[in-house]
């Protein structure tokens, strides 16, 4: 994920007010009667799931419209509607919308104050590199409880097909219908395809999944190094490389084996759910568990869409339950509104 580093457009006026809002909250018992009316302000309504595909330009439009309504720029000020639009964009990983909604909730700017929700929203924006959100999170502390609805994966992201079984290891005699594994990407180098095809079965992995991750991570560039020091074909960060016994992450064979070991572990952790496993490969299993599904990060959401496109819509993969126990939170990731 790329760091933002700078104030977003429309945020300059509030950058100096943020810590002040938290300071005021600490002294709520001594607040004036005017401050106490924050409890009487209206709550915004979480928008319903979208009915069709949502493009990035639509998400940006929601955020821009919300900004205008929040400040009354060219339109009549409507903080409730602004919060609803920010919520819509926040669900699709828009970091600025997440920050703006968190600020409204912290400051009681036209909507009822809710520091618990705000902390989660600041955390999501902070994890996407928003410096102001990182400052606010340090002041507010670690979020507690489940993420608010505005950070839950929207239903519109689910593949428009019949729901697949939760567990991809079918019982004896039971047939699970899935699309066939696709051929290797046309631009994948033959030596890499041959190596993956030879080694993937040792890790109980379909070569197509490994190649899809590799194409999305590094585009088959063995010397790729990201700003976060993720290295090689499978873009292993140093901690993950050590975790799976990789001594030289830029050695193609070691890198591929380490990435395969991590994929096998993630598939066991999420019981063969390709969406959750690949989201965790990108953002970390902790983020997937914390957000009860695909995290509300624009990069991760795009990453999962690319993986699914490479796999032709296939969303499950056999897994080895002896590798690691499943996530305790897995049942919460399979309910309505989750990107299954």
TrEMBL record:
Domain Transglycosylase SLT: 203-294
Family matches, as SUPFAM superfamilies: HCP-like, Lysozyme-like
Example GO molecular function: peptidoglycan lytic transglycosylase activity
A cellular component term, taken from the record's GO annotations: membrane
Short name of any one Pfam family annotated for the protein: SLT
CDD domains reported for this sequence: LT-like
GO biological process: peptidoglycan metabolic process
Protein family (similarity comment): Belongs to the transglycosylase Slt family.
Protein name per UniProt: Lytic transglycosylase
Provenance organism: Rubrivivax albus
């Amino acid at each position: 994920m790329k760091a933002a580093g700078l104030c977003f457009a429309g945020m300059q006026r509030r950058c100096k007010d943020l810590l002040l809002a938290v300071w005021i909250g600490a002294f709520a018992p001594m607040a004036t009667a005017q401050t106490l009316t924050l409890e009487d302000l209206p709550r915004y309504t979480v928008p319903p799931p979208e009915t069709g595909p949502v493009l990035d330009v639509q998400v940006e439009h929601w955020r821009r419209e919300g900004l205008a309504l929040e400040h009354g720029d060219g339109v009549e000020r409507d903080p409730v509607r602004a919060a609803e639009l920010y919520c819509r964009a926040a669900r699709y990983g828009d970091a600025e919308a997440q920050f703006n909604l968190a600020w409204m909730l912290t400051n009681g700017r036209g909507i009822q104050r809710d520091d618990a929700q705000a902390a989660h929203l600041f955390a999501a924006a902070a994890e996407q590199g928003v410096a102001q959100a990182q400052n606010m999170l340090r002041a507010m502390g670690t979020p507690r409880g489940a993420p608010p609805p505005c950070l839950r994966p929207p239903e519109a992201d689910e593949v428009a097909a019949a729901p697949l079984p939760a567990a991809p290891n079918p019982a004896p005699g039971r047939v699970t219908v899935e699309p066939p594994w696709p051929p290797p990407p046309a631009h994948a180098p033959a030596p890499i395809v041959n190596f993956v095809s030879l080694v993937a079965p040792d890790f109980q992995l379909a070569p197509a999944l490994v190649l899809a991750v590799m194409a999305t991570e590094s585009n088959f560039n063995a010397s790729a190094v990201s700003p976060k020091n993720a290295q090689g074909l499978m873009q292993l960060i140093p901690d993950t490389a050590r975790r799976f016994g990789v001594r030289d992450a830029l050695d193609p064979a070691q890198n591929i084996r380490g990435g395969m070991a991590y994929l096998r572990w993630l598939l066991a952790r999420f019981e063969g759910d390709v969406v959750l496993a690949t989201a965790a490969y990108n953002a970390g299993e902790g983020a997937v568990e914390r957000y009860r599904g695909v995290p509300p990060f624009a990069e991760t959401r795009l990453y999962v869409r690319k993986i699914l496109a490479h796999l032709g819509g296939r969303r499950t993969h056999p897994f080895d339950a002896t590798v690691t126990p499943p996530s305790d939170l897995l049942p919460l990731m399979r309910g309505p509104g989750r990107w299954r």
